Structures are given as structure tokens and as C-alpha cells.
């Protein structure tokens, strides 16, 4: 695959329009927060007023449970898929590259680029007061869309830690921290790794409260039963 920095240099200012459009499109896809939409407009009980105050899958399940949890899952997965697929397609249509290596570089670059802005939209949705989720399910979907090897590292560690310890946050921290390393292992590309550091760093930053509670030994463990109001 062509080095993405070299690819950017070869495209010059021609890359700016597809990059801008992909960023805007992906951000607004990310803003489609399933936990907020379902709780606020269907259940009429905003999930952000319960438990940890987080607009994510774990807090939604702990607060409400039930089959609507699957709607939240579907929203968080589909928006990442749509953001990445549309961004890659858009870049291909606007750049119209014929070289196979350049096409491969374009796809990889726009997958990471779109994934980053989708995650920003999920975490900081402009239509919901910039108060969103922590990005694990959407981030995990982004990893799957990017490369199965990256997804294997991210999801494998997440599942092992979450199942063995019942700390979802510990598995989430692994996902964020391992993402740049998995990216470098697969691509050996500086720009993609920088984007992966930013993407993984967002997840870790959103989990800073969980990290503090893990270190203090008072982090909540995951249970299949709904938690009582006020749990963290």
C-alpha cells in the first residue's frame, strides 16, 4: 500500500473537499445517538439523567434493560458503518483514482478519518448539548470496518477482560489503548497510526472517570440485572 503521507502529498489540495465532506458527514452520522433518541423520545426519560449520566449502551442497559437495548446497539453499529462506507465511496467518486495502490491508500485513510469524526459525533453530539456516549460500540464497529486484524486485537482483549473481571470499563480501556498498536502492526503507516492514537485517546479520555474508580477499587461491575438508580 502507498504510504498515506506520500499519497496526501501527491493529491495536494484536491484531497481537501472529500476530506471536509467526509468529516461533516461522519460527524453527523455519529450524532445519531441511539441511547438518547430511544430514552428521550420513546421512553420519555433521558438516560443522561440516570446512573453514570453517560449516553451509552452500558448505562442504557443498566437503567432500562429490555428489548429496546437492541435498538440502541443497532443505531450505534449502523451509524459507524454508514459513515465509513459513504465516506470511502465519496472519496472514490471525487478523487477518481485508477492506481490500485492509491485506491487502497484512499480507502484506509478515509476509514480512519471517517471513524474519527463519527466517534467525535457520538461523544459530542451538537443536537444533544454535546453530551454523548463513550464510543465503545461505535469504536468497535469502526475497528471491524477497518481491518479484521485490528478488530481481533481490540475486541479480543475487550471481551477477555470484560468477561473475566466483569469490568466493562477495563475492557474499554484496552480497546482504546490497543487501537494504535494494532494499527501500526497491520499498516506500518505513520499517518494512520496518528489517527488511531487520536481515536483511541478519545476513548481513554471519555473513560477517565472509570480509570480513576478502577484505581480506587470502587468501579461498578457489569451485571445482567438493571442497576438501582444512582449507580455509577
Automatic annotation (TrEMBL):
Topology of the protein relative to the lipid bilayer: Multi-pass membrane protein
Alphabetized Pfam families for the sequence: G3P_acyltransf
Q: Report the leader peptide range.
A: none
Give the residue spans that cross the bilayer. Answer: 15-43, 64-92, 112-130, 142-164, 184-205
Q: Which GO terms describe its cellular component?
A: plasma membrane
- Tell me which SMART domains the record gives: G3P_acyltransf
Query: Care to name a GO molecular-function term for this sequence?
Result: acyl-phosphate glycerol-3-phosphate acyltransferase activity
Q: What is this enzyme's class at the first EC digit?
A: transferase
Its pathway, per UniProt, is: Lipid metabolism; phospholipid metabolism
Query: What catalytic activity does the UniProt entry give for this protein?
Result: an acyl phosphate + sn-glycerol 3-phosphate = a 1-acyl-sn-glycero-3-phosphate + phosphate
Q: Which UniProt keywords apply?
A: Acyltransferase, Cell membrane, Lipid biosynthesis, Lipid metabolism, Membrane, Phospholipid biosynthesis, Phospholipid metabolism, Transferase, Transmembrane, Transmembrane helix
Identify the InterPro entries for this entry. G3P_acylTferase_PlsY
Family that this chain belongs to:
Belongs to the PlsY family.
HAMAP family this protein is in?
Answer: PlsY
**Biological role:** Catalyzes the transfer of an acyl group from acyl-phosphate (acyl-PO(4)) to glycerol-3-phosphate (G3P) to form lysophosphatidic acid (LPA). This enzyme utilizes acyl-phosphate as fatty acyl donor, but not acyl-CoA or acyl-ACP.
**Subunit info?**
Probably interacts with PlsX.
Q: What is this protein called?
A: Glycerol-3-phosphate acyltransferase
